[in-house]
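Quick start: read one record
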Amino acid sequence: MTTLPATPLRIGLVGTGSWARNTQAPALAAHPGVVLSGVWGRRPEAAQELAAAHGTEAYTGETGIDELFAASDAVAFALPPDVQAPLAARAAATGRHLLLDKPVATTVAGAREVVRAAGQTGVASVVFCTLRFAADTSAWIAEQAALDGWFTARAEWIGALFAPGATSEYAASPWRRDKGGLWDVGPHALSVLIPVLGDVTALTAARGPADTTHLVLRHTSGASSTVTLALGAPLGAVATEIELRGEQGTAGMPHGGDAIGSFRSAVDALIQSVRTGDPHPCDVRFGLRLTELLAQAEKQLA
């Protein structure tokens, strides 16, 4: 595993799309414990523009990504999942720690390869499931996980990225259009339910309108949960709600914080894991488990 300087951690950014520009690059550049060691992109002009905006080096091409790895202790990814996975495995094989976006991959084999590479070199990893790192929601999840007696839960993550009149720049993402709400927002819902109710022991999936997916889950605690996921809902149907019911009564998840602040917390978690050697609960193995569940649902829907 790479020997790290005491401070700061050199983190390279792979990707130059909207998520990289709006969240990851500004969070990394402003983090007091990080040096943004460079930006890699497939388009040289995009890499140069983003790197210049944050005072770092631009890299591109096959040679460039190896150069970025060499200049970094860790690598943050802002790429489509099936582009991310092989590059993350390649980075881990060189001893670079991983800050991954969700989902890790859209195939179980792809996610397993990242886990294998990370395990062989012993690198630290964090998968950025936003709600696990936003200040209000992460505290709420920890509070509910400490309680017993949950009976059931309901999660709704309903977006309108593809609705007429929607203006989100993330709607242009080809992988989101192909995989829909199951793969894009499904990891968020599962990342909350699993630490509170336990791992999923049974899963049933059904289709709804447009790209809507309904899941019915049983958990190791004995509780059940229902999940509704969509990106193609009408604008008036948009909702992000998670509610728990049990012996303690009813608990509703607060709304999460800003994306930059949440990503900064994920960077903190990676730094802590690197320095202590303790795995984070949202590491690449958890990312693999999410991928397994989503692939199981997708297989049922097919």
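Residues 114 and 249 are 40 Å apart (CA to CA).
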